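cron nightly-structures :: item 1 of 1
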Amino acid sequence: MNTKTIITIDGPAGTGKSAVAAGLARRLALPYLDTGAMYRAATLAALEQHLDLEDRDALTRLVEHCRIDLDVQPGRYAIRLDDRDVTDAIRHPRVTDHAHYLARDPQVRECLVRQQRQIGCRLGSLVTEGRDQGTVVFPHADFKFYLDASPECRAKRRLNQLHQKGMAADYDQILAAQRQRDQRDAARAVGPLKPAPDAIVIDTSKLTLEQVIDTLYRRITQKSPPLDHNRNTAPE
């Protein structure tokens, strides 16, 4: 794409956001930003430093001083925490189970949202995914999508992901944990999980990865909005 374009993809866990965003970014030859990875990297750092995850001041200091680098150029994806590659480590269930402590903290979110907007301003164009990209981080994005799927479908996908990585997992436990996470994300005071009013909602339950990417790609290429090349990607 030749113009500056921000594309947001939000939705709960297990809807395929990360894979869809990465695939769409490759097809459009745009950088891909996985904002959830930023929260996971910070969570990993907190766990490794044995911080009290209820200590909000300690978490804020951690996020302000640790360095989270994302290689988001087309065709590449890696997460580094203080010069260490943590791309795989942040996907461990222990990190997933504790990430909500940082995600719910207003000061932590403010810091990471600021970093995400800086990335958007620096890159100009990107595909970004998370929980609040279209509602909070980039409310003036050119294209907003919200992916959803049935709880059972999402739990099965997560179970398969863990099994493919050689990790033991139980479907019922995953489903119960997922429902708790959905409730926390939706009830969160800052950046709650919800579709932006102007987002296109897509149920991915019965769609393959390629079908979802095709759907988003058609929406984008068939509706090219008039873009202001000098537009600031941060909200007013």
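cron nightly-structures :: done
Residues 6-218 form a domain with the Rossmann fold fold (CATH 3.40.50.300).
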